Amino acid sequence: MGPHKVRLMMKAERDLAKRRFRRQRNKNYLAKPGIHECVIILDHLKPTYNIGKIFRSADAFGAREIHLVGIDFFDPAPGMGAFKWVPAVFHNDFFSCYTHLVNKGYSPFILEPGKGKPVANTTLPLKSAFIFGHEEYGISFEPDLFPEINRLTIPQYGKSQSLNVSIAASIILYEYVKQHGTIDKNELNS
Question: Would you list the DSSP string of 129-161?
Fold first, then answer.
């Protein structure tokens, strides 16, 4: 298969993802916040694969909402329908997202392999905001310009010192829920 056909196939898949996004975006307007106070911030992630999977984990762990920075659309298919359950908040730039959440009392965290405090040894505030950057380029801003941002790391013991962003988000959400407990589903219905 030649490069022209590959480009055409990639464009067709992107167009299909955009259609799926538009259909599910309307359902997202009705999404209710999760049972936990934590939020996820996705900073300029690629529109395929990982964002939908992070919505799925956010739904599973009861995250309040997901903030998408510099993301016009994404393919919701890998999320297996979770996009309709977890509220999405869209921002053009990181500063507006950061200001919005800090003004609401959130403590923002970035993950840096080998830097920062190990997440399991850190007491996470009830109102935690976990920031995940682009799969290749990382976060889009200079963290030192935002004094409230704390650094965390997920200890890794192998040669590769990075995790897939959707896996890292799941680990962080698990640790948050482990620290803040769970709510009995019967309590939700009362």
Answer: EEEEEBTTTB-SS-GGG-TT-EEEE----SS--
